[in-house]
């Protein structure tokens, strides 16, 4: 404590107290009234105020209240000088903002003890203010880092969404519509379609374990393994001698991805996968299921059936084998492949959508097609969850054979 302001309408009383404080090495200011004291406080910002209670025009209580209303960077310790000793009077002083009381005439030893007590409190307050300043400064720096990270994540989301550059493809006999919606900025789901030859296309739906940046990075790498633009890097295809490509059996491709994932990529992640090869001419879809939810087939009459063989996720067990199964789609039939973010979408009371909810949604939207169906399905899902943001990534592939398709 360095600066003390003495406020008393008695010049003699001010001099007595001032002499004691100056002797103790404190910087002392004097004021004969509350109004004068307020003017000094606006210029000096004292650490300690010793003010008489009974003063003309503005008494010590009113001055204390006005002092507390002044904007200050640090705390000012306030001692009221009084001859009053009643409990009600002390309560009034505390309500006005006083910290301590000292009876008149002032005893030097008692005054010094009260000043030392005030000095400890002011010192702790200054230390606390400095710590708060450091905390605030650190929070500001963290906010800047968060804003920078948030901006980077928004760009990452745009890049991840660009992995699904075409959400709708028309192949003549069939149409493919894609859905990809992350629960956060970026996620671990990925869907896609790639050409095999003029009569065949490949479809995939991937769900990497976990959420966030590491899962998103893994989906980006997997997108390269099933690339639609760099077919020479697509592990689901085989290059023929004449320069064309043929499809590898889906189960063989999934097993190869499992080996690569375990032996070549150091990660704690694994992923589920549904890989499909579609014969556009015959309407035959050959699939391999690796821990992914069972796909649904909806016939032209609206009836829905689940298909699949289950299987282990990719990246869990070395040497895992995978099965294949086929589905024959007739004109007007469609295949719906989705991640577990769909059937595990929970309502506010915790009820999961489940296979039954997916089936009900397909039936209710049987007359809707393409991206209109996708948008309506998402709307239904949001209505089930009672919110627009989902707890898990949501993705889906809709393959529809046109009702005018002529299949072999």
How does this model look, in words?
This protein is an alpha+beta fold and 408 residues long. The chain folds into two domains: 3-131, 3-Layer(aba) Sandwich (Rossmann fold), CATH 3.40.50; 163-401, Phosphatase 2c, domain 1. The protein has helices spanning 11-23, 34-44, 60-69, 87-96, 108-162, 213-225, 250-264, 340-343, 354-364, 370-385, and strands at residues 3-7, 27-31, 48-52, 77-82, 100-103, 168-170, 174-181, 189-197, 200-208, 237-239, 245-247, 271-279, 284-290, 296-298, 304-306, 325-328, 334-338, 394-401. It has a six-stranded antiparallel β-sheet. A five-stranded parallel β-sheet has the order 2-1-3-4-5, sandwiched between helices. The chain has a five-stranded antiparallel β-sheet with strand order 8-9-12-13-16. Strand 1, helix 1 and strand 2 (27-31) form a beta-alpha-beta unit. It is rod-shaped, with a radius of gyration of 38 Å.
